[in-house]
């Protein structure tokens, strides 16, 4: 499924608030809804509770309603003295501005949230609104425990909320909609931030007298030149960085595979128009053959099969690797460490390339990984929508970011982690790049958003000689990682995963076995420990061991959308 991304569009993004803010990503997660124990539905701004028509998206309840929520708390989340997850700037804002009193029904460390929520679902005792993943959402629907939010969303969502949740082609809604009904609100994130790019030592390119690659064969030639000429002066030098997690966004095989129109671990349109698993398509065999050839030629470290991300990081930052497929956040990790070790290490990001030099299309992210659902019988389900309206308004509203609700400049605390219901503008990072580019050209920060201005200032500090901002320059600078994403967006170089549903029945039963078979087979092929024709045997076994059933289930899901 290849779509043009012009319809609108953090894990190291979280290192800078300017990169992204995700209320559930390693910080504090949760959800909030009006308590189902309320005797009646209070009025907002003197008007009856929703019975039809359009309501005030940010209207305040005249009589405050009590709202329960379940939260998780990341180990890095801190509070000023006297405050907590029960009492903070966001919770006070909900009460003062919306008339919604949030009560944390339970809180757990972030690593325990999923298990605790599973127990709550199994017992039939959930908070009024829950933050769940797709599997949990499917269970809630099957158990008839949550409400259809279609009408409530239409009546109470602000235009900003409606626009934000519909960006990226509405992939969040695709996952959250069942039988034509909006059964949850997606916590949107950017799909294009999940795309791949090639990071290359530009200083090495100059030393070997070559340009950045424009084809897959060029990638081979550059890697070969790096290995033979050793421009970093290291006895062990490899052209292409790779780790044992071959599907990782950093040091994986995805970017090269995409250039050959192979999409491992994704569901894409097959020759018959139906969804097909990318890892078992003929294009994947071609990609594995190319990687095996590169390994045999000494362009890939022979020990990559035991390297975790930290080891790949060590090799890259010590000057032993000159090129790898990665993502935009590599500008902040691990590349600044390489620059500290060697100030000449000029890493530059480039778009992935194809076999023939035509534009290649990178697989993107899924857009939303968790969702907000309302317990069936809740008196005021619209409160969920209001909470999301409030969050988006404070971040992206016409008055710009409300600084009170984000980073505390005195303590450097991430206040956004306290928010109970959140979503990201999928175009947030690209818009930062576009704003910075315009400001650098005009030499003026007039009209910049908070994030764009923050990045513009960081880049100017780097240009003035402050190397502490090298990562910012490589991220949102004129030729930074976001310039690649911007090109992808403008040129339609993005392929979306065609399956956005919860794991199917057979996936749950046999998916782990199939995943292990795939990883072991592909790794052996790349390591030249198995013939490329082993791929054909793998495909047959994959289908026989459950893949064929999964394919049918995936297409049944697609037909229901």
UniProtKB/TrEMBL annotation:
Alphabetized UniProt keyword annotations: Signal
Signal peptide: 1-23
Region Disordered, residue ranges: 23-60
Family matches, as Pfam families: SBP_bac_1 (PF01547)
Protein's UniProt keywords contain Transmembrane helix: no
Low complexity biased stretches: 29-54
Keyword Signal: yes
UniProt cross-references to PANTHER family, sorted A to Z: ARABINOSE-BINDING PROTEIN-RELATED, DIACETYLCHITOBIOSE BINDING PROTEIN DASA
Name listed for the protein in its UniProt record: Putative aldouronate transport system substrate-binding protein
Species this protein is from: Cohnella phaseoli
């Amino acid at each position: 499924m290849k779509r043009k991304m012009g319809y609108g569009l953090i894990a190291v993004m979280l290192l800078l608030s300017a990169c992204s803010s995700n209320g559930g990503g390693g910080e504090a997660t949760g959800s909030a809804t009006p308590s189902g124990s309320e005797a009646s539905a209070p009025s907002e701004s003197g008007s009856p509770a929703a019975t039809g028509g359009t309501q005030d998206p940010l209207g305040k309840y005249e009589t405050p309603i009590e709202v329960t929520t379940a939260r998780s708390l990341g180990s890095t989340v801190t509070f000023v003295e006297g405050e907590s997850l029960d009492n903070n700037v966001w919770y006070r804002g909900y009460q003062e501005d919306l008339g919604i009193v949030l009560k944390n029904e339970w809180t757990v460390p972030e690593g325990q949230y999923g298990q605790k929520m599973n127990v709550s679902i199994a017992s039939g005792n959930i908070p009024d609104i829950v933050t769940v993943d797709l599997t949990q959402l499917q269970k809630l629907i099957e158990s008839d425990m949550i409400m259809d939010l279609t009408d409530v969303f239409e009546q109470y969502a602000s235009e900003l909320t409606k626009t934000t949740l519909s960006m990226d082609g509405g992939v969040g809604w695709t996952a959250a909609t069942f039988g034509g009904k909006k059964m949850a609100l997606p916590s949107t994130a950017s799909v294009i931030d999940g795309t791949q790019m090639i990071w290359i030592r530009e200083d090495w390119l100059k030393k070997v007298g070559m340009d950045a690659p424009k084809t897959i064969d060029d990638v081979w030639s550059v890697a070969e030149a790096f290995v033979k000429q050793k421009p970093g002066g290291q006895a062990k030098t490899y052209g292409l960085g790779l780790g044992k997690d071959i599907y990782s966004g950093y040091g994986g095989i995805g970017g090269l595979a995409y250039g050959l129109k192979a999409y491992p671990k994704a569901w894409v349109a097959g020759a018959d128009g139906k969804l097909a698993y990318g890892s078992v398509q003929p294009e994947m065999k071609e990609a594995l053959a190319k990687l095996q050839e590169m390994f045999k030629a000494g362009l890939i470290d022979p020990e990559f099969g035991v390297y975790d991300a930290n080891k790949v990081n060590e090799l890259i930052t010590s000057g032993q690797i000159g090129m790898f497929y990665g993502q935009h956040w590599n500008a902040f990790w691990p590349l600044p460490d390489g620059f500290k070790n060697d100030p000449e290490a000029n890493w530059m990001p480039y778009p992935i390339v194809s076999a023939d030099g035509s534009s290649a299309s990178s697989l993107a992210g899924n857009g939303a990984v968790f969702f907000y659902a309302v317990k069936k019988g809740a008196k005021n389900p619209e409160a969920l929508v209001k909470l999301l309206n409030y969050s988006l308004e404070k971040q992206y509203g016409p008055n710009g970011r409300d600084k009170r609700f984000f980073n505390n400049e005195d303590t450097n605390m991430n206040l956004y982690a306290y928010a109970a219901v959140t979503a990201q503008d999928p175009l947030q990072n690209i818009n930062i790049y576009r704003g910075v580019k315009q400001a650098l050209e005009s030499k003026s920060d007039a009209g910049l958003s908070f994030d764009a201005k923050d990045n513009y200032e960081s880049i100017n500090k780097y240009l003035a000689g402050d190397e502490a901002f090298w990562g910012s320059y490589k991220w949102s600078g004129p030729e930074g990682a976001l310039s690649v994403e911007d090109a992808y967006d403008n040129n339609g170089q993005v392929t979306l995963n065609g399956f956005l549903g919860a794991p199917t029945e057979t996936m749950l039963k046999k998916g782990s076995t199939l995943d292990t078979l795939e990883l072991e087979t592909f790794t052996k092929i790349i390591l030249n420990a198995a013939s490329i024709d082993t791929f054909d045997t793998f495909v047959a076994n994959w289908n026989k061991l459950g893949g064929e059933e999964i394919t049918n289930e995936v297409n049944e899901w697609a037909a229901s959308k």
